[in-house]
Amino acid sequence: MRRRMRRQRVEWIGMIKLVLCDMDGTLKPFGRDRVSERSVSAIHELRDAGIQFGPATGREAVDLYPFFGGDGSCFATGILANGKQVYVDGELVLERPLDLAALKRLEAYCLDNPDFALIVYVPTGEKCGRPTADVILSGTTEREVEAYARRTGLTTSEGRRLGRVPDAKIVTAGFAYMGESAEPMGAIRNELRERFPEFDFVRPSPQFFDVLPRGWNKATALVPLLERLGITRDEVAFFGDSENDVALMGEVAHSFAVSNASTVARSAARYHIGDAADDSVAKVMEAIARAGGALEIPEDALPR
């Protein structure tokens, strides 16, 4: 298959039937509270053209609701919680909780170090059709959380509160380094891996690790999703920006990195487009929809 990035139409026989997209730093730029109106419109164009769309994100539905302005159709299908949840048309078809005993040991480790914090999501059902959850921050203060959000650009979850890890099913957890610099993150990860062999620690942003069951990632969830949709890997396009996207980039035929992506994500991606802040993903989604599933990359979506 020949591919020439500088042409609008990529030479490929076949059609895109599913578009998956990371959220933070890809569809939703860091520092913004929600995706752009153009991105939501592009998602609807895909769906109107008979092309499925879904987020492939470390976030849960409780975060996606405000990100998409309450439009639940934008995340009814997708890979959530870094592959630990898979939804198809609003139905949860796969879920992989974290090891609670190991998670509590990780919390104790964080409590012993003032620069570490643990974030866990405890779903609480729905309210007026909106997914809800207790988002618990352990080992930190509200002032530290606000400063961290300003410094890193990460969107903090609605309904968050300070507390401890409860005796409950937990699917999503994150480890935050609250220090001023990301420089120690490599050494911190090495120690975490040694102390907590039950988990992988994947870095979606400079000072944050997603906590995953060892050997689990977004790509793990791809097979059950495609089986339910009746779609092949060659019919999938995926957009990402960071380390937790690399495994999935390697499993689909058409992987894209935005220009603000990490070095490891840019190296893993087959195609490269412009910055997340420039609606580059939306531009490509519009082109795919308007071409009826043919893979097209508009000139204005290419890196500047």
UniProtKB/TrEMBL annotation:
GO CC annotations, alphabetized: cytosol
GO molecular function, one term: magnesium ion binding
Alphabetical list of InterPro entries matching this protein: HAD-like_sf, HAD_sf
Pfam families cross-referenced by the UniProt entry: Hydrolase_3 (PF08282)
Name of the featured protein: HAD family phosphatase
The organism of origin for this protein: Parafannyhessea umbonata
